[in-house]
Protein: fructose-bisphosphatase
Organism: Lepocinclis playfairiana
Amino acid sequence: SNMSYNTIPQSGVSRNSQPWAVMAGIFGICAAVVFVAAPTSTSMYSTVATKPIAAPVSSLQVGTVTRMTGPSVALSMPDYEAREAVLVQRTQIESGYAPVGFGALVLLVGAAVYSFIKPAAHAPLPIPAPLKAVVVPAVDRMVRLTTRMADARTAVAMLAVSSEKKVVGIKSPVFSETCDQTGITLSRFMLEVARANPDLQELESVFSSIQTACKTISKLVKRSSIDGMTGLQSGGGSVNVQGEEQKKLDVITNDVLKRALKFTGRMGVIASEEEDTPVEVDNTVDESYGKDVLVEESGGRYISVFDPLDGSSNVDAGIPVGTIFGIFAEDDDCKLSDSFFDESKDMSEAMKGCLRSTLKPGTSLVAAGYALYSSATFFVFTLGAGVNGFTLDESIGEFILTHPNIKIPPRGKIYSINEANRENWDAPMQEYIAGLANGKNRGKKVYTSRYIGSMVGDVHRTLLYGGVFGYPADTKNKNGKLRLLYEAAPMSFLVEQAGGKSTTGLVRVMDVPPKSVHQRVPLVMGGSDEIDELVELYQK
């Protein structure tokens, strides 16, 4: 930081002595000029020399000499000698002015030369006390506590403090021209993103596979009644880890998306809502690649979490459903103590590694999005630099950019929530929804209720029209019902990038660290003013 301060110079020769020397020289020259320029009549020698001298008298008297200088002027010998002495003394004085003037001139020239040629000596100045202290600016820091058992009786705890990671901005793609017939396709969009952000080049292949899977799922959903893919898996009795009966399409779409992500070669771990545990991806390439072609080993840079068919209970009725996904970068941010695994003694080391990679808060997401299968197939996503929406053009088989830079207004006029659970909500939530319904809220607006029952469909409307979507905790589901990793965190990332907010009522959803793969959380998201009002009610 900039700071100004005063210093006290040490004793020594100052530069101010040079002007005094110059002034002394000038004064000496002036004095010499004054004396040298005095009138010549001041010289007695000149006075005597200009007087005519009379011829000498022939008569002489002893002891007295008389000289005639004129008819009336005569000088005796003693007077003449006195005047000669004065003349000699005055001449000697006047002759001394020349050295004085010359010395002053030399002094002046010397001072000038000294001033312009030799720089003044600079003695080091003492450093003021404030500069001796090093001030470290305040920065956000992260504290990580890791515990483990060294043996049966000894516990070891390690505390690490580190500065928060520098957030690197994503450059938005720029399109200098477009095709009138195709517009901006998702494929071209991701190509431009990779060109603008070389670090994200691998995401291009990831998104290519995701959009292919979403096109496939869109076809499966539309033809589910025709192709006999409605109803429960295996005629009923097939239950996923959530305790929910699986539809036929749940199993099929999960397999489609999982394989599409695996085939990218960029995935290290894949976690699905329909799977009991995360799956580590084997990215080993065929041996023949190494013989003739140089292959870059990425080692699985990314981790994918997804819900392959959100709202699948509605699919048989033709109600909109969707796919939700989130992409994490694989790094060392997630640190879990060994005690985290104490309850799973038979868990393999590979599975421990998968969990360590997967259990990350939403703030670690590098991309998130959803596909909505409705009147059209929409693909909406964010890379951390705004939200863009694409619509599938089935005639060419490409997603076309139709909703660039989606923004949620601070306040809307629609709330989307299952009001059948109103009596089971906590008091702040009941008061909040009642205020939206009757207009007793900050915006003084009377809201209307629209609820599909499919998170993707309800959030998509909220993104486009504004308002509030929520699935809060209640007495039946004290931790909420939506999964943090697969649904709440990715959707919260989208909403925040569109200018909105997302909360559990008490904390920001993106900040919640998952403790298990299928952890549930309460969720309310919407415009910034609307969510701020809810948070204040909980704080009271």
User: Anything to note?
Assistant: The domain at 172-285+298-336+347-405 is CATH 3.30.540.10 (Fructose-1,6-Bisphosphatase; Chain A, domain 1). The radius of gyration is 49 Å.
